[in-house]
Protein: Protein disulfide-isomerase
Amino acid sequence: MAMSKLSIALLLLGTILLCSPSVKSSEVEEEASPVVVLDNTNFTEEVGKHDFIVVEFYAPWCGHCKKLAPEYEKAAQVLSKHDPPIILAKVDGSDKTNKPLTDKFNVKGFPTIKIIKSKGEVEQEYKGPRQSDGIVKYLKTQAGPASIEIKSAEDAKSLVDDKSISIVGVFPEFSGTEFDNFIALSEKLRSDYTFGHTKDAKILPHGDSSVDGPFVRLFKPFDELFSDFQEFEVDELEKFIEEASMPLVVIFDSDESNRPFILRFFRSPNVKAMFFTSFQSDKLEDYKTELHKAAVEYKSKNISFLLGDPITSQGAFQFYGLRDTWLPLFMIQDKTNRKYLGKNVEPDQISFWIKEYMDGTLTPYKKSQPIPETNDKPVKIVVGDSFSDIVYESGKNVLLEFYAPWCKHCTKLDPILEEIAIALQNENIVIAKMDATLNDVPDEFELSEFPTLYFFSADKKVKVFKGGRTVESITNFIKKHKFPPTAEPEVTTEAEAEIEKVAQPKAENVKDEL
Structure:
């Protein structure tokens, strides 16, 4: 269930700064600004006037939208004077009359910003900063050519800054296979990076100016500040950019410029080594030094490193079941989602602790609520530490609900499961439930929604339940798949067979909340 866990983790970590689109409010929108106001009645007409327009889908009550609003307005003011002007617009996505637009542009939360080109024919996600200066710079690069020619040191200074990734191709001539491949890749990746090209390496701010072209120099505000590459096969060049543009140690704090790296860290298939400590600690620099050494040493082993501020990353603590008393804390999550913890770690213990992980001598950590002292209700409670005893090793047929405390459909299911548990209490059947937000779920049980019901038979076969959530439907499912199977009643006539067929309840098609 790695993908499902990742989706939930990213939401809990707060790295996706979105408000839910389903909430309503009566707040009144502020006065008009340099930002053009669009709705379902004028959207197509207005967008059709422009080859390049930026549209924010917002909600008046959304805190993230309120924070963005003044920055977006400042940027709109500056960009209105650009040649040609770059138009910034907004749509109230919480207004039901604009639902056709939020559906069309797949708006899942607020704010969502779209760049719309060619009079509405092309759209792309806005992936830039949320401060006015960053918005202006990002949109200028998106509105113009994918790669900008750098003719002077002043041009280079405006393209390469100390906050973002910039990629510059150095060529003797702006023609040929290498140049064409570079331009093609810059078009593909333009929403993620800033691209430029030049004939003169001497005007670039960092790196050897005597290197013969063609080559690509990637500038970054961390680690060694730049990396060079001289292969121009498109896939190889893209791979270089992907790897070189990632910090050796990702910083998880409140700095918005780190958001893209945090997202990429958690989306990566690599083993994840996460270290959490107070950023006010007098040992912080020592921890950074040791983590950087480890990141360099294990880079070829596909291990990604992150240093997190526990205040900013409280969502991670909740998701992984971590505790403040364990700080400074080191956690490694491997590719099978097993986790290994080092509690109250000192700087000089970091390299030793990672070596133990590599040697396979660490014991995995399991997220679990405490095992209940009493568990005598009809529906049994399962936690991470009791999962094996109740599900795998009980020798019984187990119907297990994976639920979330906030899930309304899960709450509605409670009395249904209790009725089934009471009715089947004298058979070799256990009805149980587990809070999937507070306990580790074994990988063989994939969760894409709550509630999810699985049946683990006494002969150790696993089957997911996808029928209607009624007593009859669930009971029939249990009886059909339990071990040993229930003897089938003998049907003596076609009429009886038809009656039996009609009596089977149909499964409901219920869309659940995650």
